[in-house]
Every structure is written in C-alpha cells, then in structure tokens.
Amino acid sequence: MLVPEVLLNPKLIDKIAWLHLHEGKLLSTRSRGKDRYYIPGGKREAGETDEQTLLREIKEELTVDLQPTSLVYRGTFEASAHGHAADVVVRMTCYSAYYTGTLQPAAEIEEVIWHSYQHRPQVSAVDQLIFDWLRQQSLLAD
Questions:
Q1: CA–centroid distance for 137 within its chain
Q2: d(CA 88, CA 96)
Q3: Which of 27, 60, 70, 113 is 20 to 30 A from 107, comparing alpha carbons?
Q4: What is the chain's mean pLDDT, rounded?
C-alpha cells in the first residue's frame, strides 16, 4: 500500500490552490487574524483527490463552484511555510479553472483582493514563487 508523502513527512504541508487571473491580476485572500495574503485553496482531507480538495475548498472559502471539466494543472511550488518552524515546507499544487457564482469571502476568509506583481511582498513565500512564475509567463501585471 502506498502511504501519502505527507504522512511520511509531517513537516510537509500539502495544499491545493486555485490560480484565477483577471486582467493581469491574481485573486488572493486573507484569513481572519492573518498578516499575509494567500492564493485561495487549502489542505486535502483524507482520501481526497486534488480536484475534490479544490472544489470543496473554493466553495467553502469563496462561495463559487469551480467547473471540474475546466481544471488545468499549472504547476507545483514549494517553500518555507509562513508562520511555521523553519523546517516546515508547504507544497502548493496549482490549478486554473472556470467558475460559476459570485466571489465573496466566507468561512475563515476576511478579504478577497486582486493582486499584481507589486503586491508580492504581502504574500507568503510559496505565493511569491508563484507570483514570479506568473510574471515570467507574462500573466501577472507589474
């Protein structure tokens, strides 16, 4: 039986994220009590696939429904986990997708904002890597 890597390495935080761009800006969120912005998404629950995790997390956090047939894998990024010990790493597996509904903060999300590259210092380390990658792809405005 295969054991998920996150169980073998408790210092790895496995997250799935939604990269949603509009007019050169990336959708970002801030949770209550947090000092950084994060790309929307979250941790998988036991037995969930990437798709199941992303659909659930985005519905919980932003009240919209991602269209499963439109999911496109965009990349996986790793960096030190913000607010954790130095040896804790977050792995962010990113997808883009179309959605239906109206974006609005829900659950622990206090703020929804659109970021350009100039907002890079306000996001977590792994999000900074994603900002750099999006800019290199000419997808994120300065």
A1: 18
A2: 26
A3: 70
A4: 90
Return d(Cα 127, Cα 51) in angstroms, integer. 20
pLDDT tens digits, one per residue of 116-138: 999 999 999 999 999 999 999 99
Side-chain-side CA neighbours of 16 within 13 Å: the count stands at 20
State phi, psi for 92 to the nearest 5 degrees. Answer: -110, 115
Report if pTM > 0.70. Answer: yes
CATH architecture of 5-136: Alpha-Beta Complex (3.90)
